[in-house]
């Protein structure tokens, strides 16, 4: 071997190492490129999946909104049907009241039933005064004061509509019936009245029950205060009763 010749093996090894390094570098670059493409495709697929999910959610939301719109309409229909039923019921009640009111027709020729069990204690008198035992004085009397027993049933002398129920110092619990054509009947000294304003009361039906007398009639004893009025003015009840 000549001294000027270099060992071939070292040079060959260096070349081989360089080639390997280049090859590895190429592989790394290809791998990185491939990975980047894969990641990009994966991101695109994920984004597409999210868009599809959002569309499905939106469709479901719109479907739910549509259902929400339909349901209240059904409830409104039910409410309308209920209101219609109530209106029909009220119309029937009004019709019944109207029919009953048509029976309220009192005239000069009409007759009154005797409203209590007893006899007259104090007569009607508006042209001269009469004596009141409890008050120990003479005064005008716009009604009949009729004797009776505590607790007895007081019946309507004629059909009418209840226009007033009041507590009066002189006549106690007092009920007024509109009998039609300007005529009305007033029943005083009552208790346990089973009526309300607006009720129709047929002739002979219960107006109330006879109560203990007020302090203004303590000497006369239990009695029914019975007054008939025409256009707000008292008239003699006996003029409408058979003698």
UniProtKB/TrEMBL annotation:
Cytoplasm is among the record's keywords: no
Ranges annotated as biased composition (Basic and acidic residues): 53-62
InterPro entries named in the record: Cell_wall_metabolism_enzyme, M23ase_b-sheet_dom
Keyword Transmembrane helix on entry: yes
Pfam families: Peptidase_M23 (PF01551)
Key words, A-Z: Membrane, Transmembrane, Transmembrane helix
Biased composition (Polar residues): 79-99
Region annotation (Disordered) ranges: 53-99
Domain M23ase beta-sheet core positions: 143-237
Residue spans crossing the bilayer: 15-35
Domain of life of the native organism: Bacteria
Record-given protein name: M23 family metallopeptidase
Organism of origin: Faecalicatena faecalis
Lineage: Bacteria, Bacillati, Bacillota, Clostridia, Lachnospirales
């Amino acid at each position: 071997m000549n001294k000027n010749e270099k060992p071939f093996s070292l040079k060959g090894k260096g070349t081989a190492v360089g080639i390997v390094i280049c090859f590895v570098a190429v592989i790394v670059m290809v791998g990185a490129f491939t990975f980047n493409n894969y990641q990009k495709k994966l991101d695109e697929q994920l984004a597409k999946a999210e868009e599809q999910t959002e569309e499905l959610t939106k469709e479901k939301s719109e479907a739910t909104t549509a259902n929400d719109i339909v349901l209240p309409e059904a409830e409104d229909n039910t409410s309308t049907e209920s209101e219609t039923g109530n209106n029909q019921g009220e119309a029937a009640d009004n019709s019944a009241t109207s029919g009953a009111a048509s029976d309220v027709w009192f005239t000069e020729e009409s007759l009154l039933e005797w409203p209590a069990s007893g006899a007259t204690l104090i007569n009607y008198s508006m042209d001269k005064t009469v004596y009141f035992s409890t008050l120990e004085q003479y005064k005008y009397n716009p009604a009949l004061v009729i004797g009776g027993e505590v607790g007895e049933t007081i019946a309507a002398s004629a059909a009418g509509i209840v226009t007033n129920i009041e507590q009066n110092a002189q006549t106690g619990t007092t009920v007024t019936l509109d009998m039609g054509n300007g005529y009305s009947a007033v029943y005083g000294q009552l208790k346990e009245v089973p009526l309300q304003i607006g009720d129709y009361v047929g002739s002979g039906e219960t107006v109330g029950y006879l109560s203990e007398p007020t302090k203004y009639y303590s000497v006369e004893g239990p009695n029914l205060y019975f007054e008939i009025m025409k256009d707000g003015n008292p008239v003699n009840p006996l003029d409408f009763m058979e003698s």
